[in-house]
Amino acid sequence: MPALTVPLIAPSILSADCARFGEEIKAVDEQGADWIHLDVMDGHFVPNMTFGPVIVKALRPYSRLFFDVHLMIEPVDLFIEPFAKAGADQILFHIEAGPHAHRTLQTIKSFGIKAGIVLCPSTPAQAISEILDLVDTILVMTVNPGFGGQQFLESQLSKINQIRNMVDATGRDIRISVDGGITAKTAPLVINAGADVLVAGTSIYGQKDYRQAMNALRGQDVK
Ligand SMILES: O=C(CO)[C@@H](O)[C@H](O)COP(=O)(O)O
Ligand SMILES: [Fe+2]
């Protein structure tokens, strides 16, 4: 069997100690994280609320790692500039959050940062077929967005695989990220299906040893 790709690991601070977000970001940075994933929720697009650009700006000095900002908000466009100026390296938004994804991607790119599109579990891969030329990352939700600690949806594996085929056909370097219920058990399934970025909250911040937790997701189960 061929060896699995070593994925990038993006700890989601949603499961960190939120009274100590800065130190929690610093800790995973020092222990080998590749990206930092920041979940922004508005209590409208999803039934939960987290934080806005002011907090992202306050957290920026704690790490130089790539800030992967996952917007679960509607509307999106109004908030691109504040998040870009707060220090986002990539802004991801949901294809379900409005009819003008193409324009939104252009707006994100106009700030000189990366742009990503997110699909909820009920959204087919085909929904993003006409915007692949503008995306840097495709994020497949493997739970319904809004909360950490949910059960991984195995039904999403075939969609990840379909998106892998779509991406390979473009010949472009597009990352395929997955988010929700990613553990050492589900990681090989999504990597095998074509994912190369693993977002994980509970399975990193819920563990004592962050380095060991991230290595387990990489399939490198050594201390
Ligand atoms: O976007 C979200 C939830 O909507 C995520 O980024 C969660 O934070 C993932 O948490 P776990 O499922 O890994 O606990
Ligand atoms: Fe997320």
TrEMBL record:
Binding site for substrate: S12, H70, G146, F147, G148, G149, D179, G180, G181
CDD domains reported for this sequence: RPE
Superkingdom: Bacteria
Keyword Transcription: no
Reactions this protein catalyses: D-ribulose 5-phosphate = D-xylulose 5-phosphate
Free-text cofactor note: Binds 1 divalent metal cation per subunit.
Keyword Plastid annotated: no
Cofactor(s) demanded: Mn(2+); Zn(2+); a divalent metal cation; Co(2+)
Stored SUPFAM superfamilies: Ribulose-phoshate binding barrel
NCBIfam families xrefs: PRK05581.1-4, rpe
HAMAP family: RPE
Function: Catalyzes the reversible epimerization of D-ribulose 5-phosphate to D-xylulose 5-phosphate.
Descriptive protein name: Ribulose-phosphate 3-epimerase
Gene: rpe
